[in-house]
Amino acid sequence: MAKNTESHQEETRVFKPSKEIAREAEVKSFAEYKKLHAKSLKNPEKFWAREASNLVWSKKWKKVLNWKLPYAEWFVGGQLNASENCLDRHLDGPRRNKAAIIWEGEPGDKMTLTYQQLHREVCVFANILKRNGVKKGDRVLIYMPLIPEAVIAMLGCARIGAVHTVVFGGFSSDSIKDRLADSGAKIVVTADAGYRRGQIVTIKQNVDHALAGSTEVKRVIVAKRTDIEVNIQEDRDVWWHQEAQYVSADCPAVPVDSEHPLFILYTSGSTGKPKGILHTTGGYMVGTAATSRYIFDFKENDIYWCTADVGWITGHSYLVYGPLANGTTCMLYEGAPNWPEPDRFWKIIAEQRVTILYTAPTAIRAFMKWGDDWPKKHDLSSLRLLGSVGEPINPEAWMWYHKMIGAGRCPIMDTWWQTETGAILISPLPGATPLKPGTATLPFFGVDAAIVDDKGKELPHGESGKLVIRKPWPSMLRTIYGDKARYIKTYWSEVKGCYFTGDGARRDKDGYFWIVGRIDDVLNVAGHRLGTAEVESAIVGHDSAAEAAVVGRPDEIKGQGVVAFVVLKEGHAASKELAEKIRSHVAKAIGPIAKPDEIRFAEALPKTRSGKIMRRLLKQIAAGVQITGDTTTLEDLSVLTRLSKNGE
Ligand code: PRX
Q1: How far out from the chain centre does Cα 464 lie?
Q2: Is 165 close to ligand 1, i.e. is its CB under 6 Å away?
Q3: Ligand 1 centroid to 465 CA: how many Å?
Q4: Does the CB atom of residue 503 touch ligand 1 within 6 A?
Q5: Ligand 1 atom at shortest distance from the alpha carbon of 424
Q6: What mean pLDDT is predicted for residues 125-148?
Q7: Is residue 347 one of the residues assigned to a domain?
Q8: Are the C-beta atoms of 554 and 648 separated by less than 8 Å?
Q9: Is residue 309 in contact with ligand 1, taking CB distance under 6 Å?
Q10: Ligand 1 within 6 A of CB of 513
Q11: DSSP for 215-262, written as a single string
């Protein structure tokens, strides 16, 4: 990404909102945005309360915000239900028969669920959960391919006040096991299998491995996606479709307190153990509903496609809760973008007449590489708005997306946010913000973002520093599940009084935010977070490895690639085969996305006198850059030289 970061400095292209888009948009000019933003910062609670009144509440809140740093409570005393806000509220009018989900499986099978149908399926599933002993507050682990049942399962949990924790279907059985232990979930919802790149992914088998020897999990509910045979363990496993025969389709939504937990989602941090980010109901729903309405500018006839998996926060906030709360039609696609050919996305857009596409820079860069002929084969004229999320989008990719996919007509919403923030915090608004390729532009209403130095002093425009948020916002995480101390240390100790994002950034002369990337030990690989410590601990879990250091290096498609420096135990010799074994071991321990692109064996790792691994140097070696900077604190300089040489 270094190259991209540099080109930020020179970016002078500006794309103003078109008159047509501005006319129809919620916020119609830059002046209006600036005025509203300034007003919202003076009194964020007023802004958020107005947005909250767009939702359905069983009981109105008494107080908008209780803020005792670092703990926030929003819409205190209020009660609501997230699934009611996504479903029931749309059933009284014409949206009843509108498509809520248009789903396409990788092999080409299709299914459409109207709001009424989705509501029915969610009620049935909520009753299945109840029948299987799930109660309000219980945690339910969902491990599924991207099929409608994944969304139904999430909303089914929300309907009865159960707390879902979705684990990405590409993660390993060890990852399921860890998350089960941490969340205390006693029930798992899964599927027999899924499809990916023409292959069958044996989802249920991974669950079986994760549960081997476990007595905690009492029930596994299995959705049927394929015809493959799976192991059904009597007394533990039940088929979703069979259970559905025993329950009614009547399940009133249970009103929960605004601060009742909605879900836990695990994400990587700078230690080996993923963090369970806890989101609650009222604030999260207000944040996701409001941001999706303003930023994606939903219209009644939109077909909106967010390409993320439900296993990530983007899938939670902008595939399920935000758009459904707005009564939007959501496209859902199960498989790979290049299956059977690299034009699958464009084919879907043309066939379904998708109007809004929200995807990731890594996908855009892959499409660029596959060539212009693929999108050119299809009619993409239905598109009116594009979105980007997950990592900084380099200006080259932005321009390609704008020209080739958006035909120069569709504004690009480059949205900055995190698992922890729950909703988008920095983003343009389609009818208001002049766009510059590569920047997420300016903060959303009520969001007080700033760039500060190590002491917390705000830096002048042009200078790089830490990105912080100075005021609480409704969809912010409430804690790290079961680990208050880590919550305080990670987010509230780095800069006094502020939420620390972990990102480095700077503002340009117009105040636009340019995100440079993570400044902690977290990598961003293909838009997904990976903790270096997590990968290192997986590597040293292999018999041969004594010590490991993992760093990122710039990667043309994935943004960052993973390079691991490995010191072997006595009696093990470096070889290509061993490197391959270690790579596979990491894939098995975490999931294929964590597989190092390269393993470099070393006799020792360069360390400071106090024993800290000198990652800065390793990064330079990994990137093939000449080593610069101060190396006088190195324990053994020869180690460094040897590492460098290995790489040549
Ligand atoms: O470094 C930022 C990057 O992704 C991180 C958050 O990762 P995660 O919690 O997995 O959520 C990804 C989806 C919201 C951030 O700290 N990031 C996300 N969006 C952008 C971004 N960096 C630059 N520009 C973005 N639009």
Answers
A1: 25
A2: no
A3: 17
A4: yes
A5: 14
A6: 98
A7: yes
A8: no
A9: no
A10: no
A11: -S--EEEEE--SS------TTTEEEHHHHGGGS-S--PPPPEETTSEE
Calculate how far, in angstroms, residue 390's C-alpha sits from the geometric centre of ligand 1. Answer: 4
User: pTM, whole model, 2 decimals?
Assistant: 0.94
Amino acid residing at 527: G
- Indicate if 498 and 547 belong to the same structural domain: no
Q: In what order do the strands lie in the sheet with 412-415?
A: 110-114, 99-104, 329-333, 303-306, 356-359, 385-389, 412-415
My answer on whether 543 and 475 are in the same domain is no
Do 322 and 464 belong to one domain?
A: yes
By most ligand atoms within 8 Å of CB, the mutation choice from 420, 503, 506 for ligand 1 is: 503
Q: What is the pLDDT of residue 7?
A: 41
As a whole number, mean pLDDT of residues 332-361 equals 97
Q: How far apart are CA 574 and CA 425, in angstroms?
A: 46
The residue whose CB lies within 8 Å of the most ligand 1 atoms, and thus the one to mutate among 389, 468, 514, 516, is: 389
- What CATH number corresponds to the domain at position 640? 3.30.300.30
Q: What is the pLDDT of residue 12?
A: 82
Atom of ligand 1 nearest to the CA of 515: 23
- What is the spatial distance between Cα 513 and Cα 451, in angstroms, rounded to a whole number? 9
Per the structure, the complete domain to which residue 201 belongs is given by 98-254
Residues 67 and 103 in one domain: no
What does the alpha-carbon distance between residue 428 and residue 389 come to, in Å, rounded to a whole number?
12
Give the model confidence (pLDDT) of 279-298 as tens digits: 999 999 999 999 999 999 99
10 in any annotated domain: no
| Whether residue 4 has its Cβ less than 6 Å from ligand 1 | no
Q: Tell me: the pLDDT tens digits for 456-481?
A: 999 999 999 999 999 999 999 999 99
Report the number of distinct structural domains present in the chain: 3
Rounded to whole angstroms, how far apart are CA atoms 118 and 126? 12
Best mutation site among 288, 521, 529 for ligand 1, i.e. most ligand atoms within 8 A of its Cβ? 529
Q: Is 282 in the pocket of ligand 1 (CB under 6 A)?
A: no
521 burial (CB, 10 Å; 0-12 / 13-18 / 19+) is buried
The radius of gyration of the chain from alpha carbons, rounded to an integer in Å, stands at 24
- On whether both 134 and 266 belong to a single domain, the answer is no
Q: Is the CB of 415 under 6 A from ligand 1?
A: yes
Low-confidence winner among 6-15, 128-137, 173-182 (lowest mean pLDDT): 6-15
> Position of tokens 């079986």?
208
**pLDDT tens column, 30-79:** 999 999 999 999 999 999 999 999 999 999 999 999 999 999 999 999 99
Statement: residue 10 has pLDDT above 60: no
Nearest CA to ligand 1 atom 6: 418
pLDDT the model gives residue 614: 86
Same domain, 58 and 171: no
Q: Would residue 439 count as lying in a domain?
A: yes
For the Cβ of 349 lying below 6 angstroms from any atom of ligand 1, the answer is no
pLDDT at 647 over 50: no
Among protein residues, the one with the nearest Cα to ligand 1's atom 24 is 392
- Does a cis peptide bond (omega within 30 degrees of 0) precede residue 430? no
Nearest CA to ligand 1 atom 15: 418
In 3D space, the residue among 236, 209, 200, 219 whose CA is nearest the CA of residue 142 turns out to be 219
